[in-house]
Design brief:
single chain, alpha/beta, Rossmann fold, 5-stranded parallel β-sheet, 8 helices, about 50% helix, globular, binds adenosine monophosphate
């Protein structure tokens, strides 16, 4: 099972990805997570990527494609993988195609999760994360018992820099300009599944699995 998950920021790609990789026992490649790890470890790549990420812009393609190709060399691509947050534009899609073609492989499906813009903004702007245990709260939907404090360990909750409202709006614009063309690209290739990502995570997961099959 070789899958790509496309969707606007905060549509729930990460949550669905975690479940899908368990269900189908495949590798998960999240370029956002890989970049955040590089930023946290202050690597050269992290230093070059951070400003773009904080502003909600895409990190330049050459950095991303090198990072992804390097990751793909270390996993069993024949067995399967799920990309979340990659490709983000047609240049990256071509790079992924080239990589797979060289190995005689193809993508099986591209899942496009969509949701209403206001919902996506509320999800992001309300999100607070515990820096210690990584529990994710939302001040609108799943608030901590005491404002700003983790229920589990009492740590002060933080907001991801790219969850600030102006950054979220920018990320949505970037999605529309750069990533929406990919939806058409994969539709033409006959790979696209267009699914509503606005339900609760269990509902969305069930719909995805019913479309992909039991694997
Ligand atoms: P994400 O968690 O996937 O929304 O990614 C967070 C940020 O990392 C994005 O806003 C971009 O700045 C950067 N990023 C992640 N994946 C890519 C990609 N495939 N191409 C360019 N930038 C990316």
């Amino acid at each position: 099972m070789r899958i790509v998950l496309i969707g606007p920021p905060n549509v729930g790609k990460g949550t669905q990805a975690e479940r899908l990789i368990k269900k189908y026992a495949i590798d998960h490649i999240s370029t956002g997570d890989l970049l955040r790890k590089n930023v946290a470890e202050d690597t050269l790549l992290g230093q070059r990527a951070k400003d773009y990420m904080d502003k909600g812009e895409l990190v330049p393609d050459d950095l991303i494609i090198d990072m992804v190709n390097d990751t793909l060399e270390h996993i069993d691509v024949e067995h399967g993988f799920l990309f979340d947050g990659y490709p983000r534009n047609p240049v990256q899609a071509e790079a992924l195609n080239d990589f797979l073609l060289e190995k005689g492989l193809m993508l099986d499906k591209v899942i496009y999760l969509y949701a209403d813009k206001d919902l996506l903004i509320r999800r992001a702007v309300g999100r607070r994360i515990c820096p210690v245990c990584h529990t994710v709260y939302n001040i609108f939907g799943f608030p901590p018992k005491v404002e700003g404090i983790c229920d589990r360990d009492g740590a002060t909750l933080i907001q991801r820099p790219d969850d600030r409202e102006e950054t979220v709006r920018k990320r949505l614009e970037v999605f529309k300009e750069q990533t929406v063309p990919l939806v058409e690209y994969y539709e033409m290739a006959g790979l696209l599944l267009r699914l509503d990502g606005s339900g609760n995570p269990d509902e969305v997961f069930d719909v995805i699995v019913s479309e992909l099959g039991e694997g």
